Amino acid sequence: MSEKINVEFSLIYRLLHPMHTVLVSSVEKTGKANVLPIAWVMPTSRSPPLVAISVAPSRHSHALIEETREFVVNIPTVDLVNEVFVCGRTSGKNLDKFVESGLTALPARNVKAPIVEECVAHLECKLISQFKTGDHTIFVGEVIEAYANKGIFSDKYDIEKGRMLFHLGGNIFATLDPKVHMP
Q1: Which domains, from first to last, does the chain contain?
Q2: pLDDT < 50 positions in the chain
Q3: How far apart are the first and last CA of the chain?
Q4: What pLDDT score was predicted for residue 20?
Q5: Is 26 exposed, middle or buried (0-12, 13-18, 19+ CB in 10 A)?
Q6: Neighbour count for residue 108 (Cβ, 10 Å)
Q7: Backbone angles phi, psi at 20, to 5 degrees
Q8: What element of type H or E holds 75?
Q9: Nearest 5°: phi and psi at 115?
């Protein structure tokens, strides 16, 4: 049997990593868009389609989602790792993260929050619930529109064409190996 080591409580969430990294876009009532990379995201229901994201109250996006009651979950690939990193290291409170990162905000189909053009998929969400969990708030959004780049997704991602980005912790990201298959 392998030797077990203790893990510091401040790092236990990383035992659940790698986690799929997404870019959550939101918008101020004035129209200024913001984008936040997060790895704490998950589906919670198929019918209705619900997605939960976990956001620290100190993040500018937290206030925007509470204010407008909507957000978009955008799916980046490894090609956007530098842009994701820029968005995670700056605050949209005093600057435009789209300009800083070089990402493109385009109008979404059904919500005011923009989509991130460079991402391969988008889930437009209307906030239906939120609750505080320790030092984060979980926002639950009903997906009212979902779309993806043709050729990247059919009933699942083609991870050889669209290499998804996974957060390992800190500044480290990874992708999936498309060669692993179950018999």
Answers
A1: 9-174 (2.30.110.10)
A2: none
A3: 27
A4: 93
A5: buried
A6: 22
A7: -60, 125
A8: strand 70-75
A9: -95, 160
**pLDDT tens-place string over residues 7-45:** 999 999 888 888 999 999 999 999 999 999 999 999 999
| Residue type at 28 in one-letter notation | E
Q: Which residue in this structure is represented by tokens 């639950």?
A: 140
String of DSSP letters for 118-182: TSSEEEEEEEEEEEEETTEEEEEEEEEEEEE-TTTBSSSB-TTTS-B-EEEETTEEE---TT---
User: Contact at 8 Å (CB) between 126 and 159?
Assistant: no
Q: Which residues face 20 on adjacent strands?
A: 166
Which position has the token pair 């529109």? 145
Q: Is the pTM of this model over 0.85?
A: yes
Tokens 């939120």 sit at which residue? Answer: 130
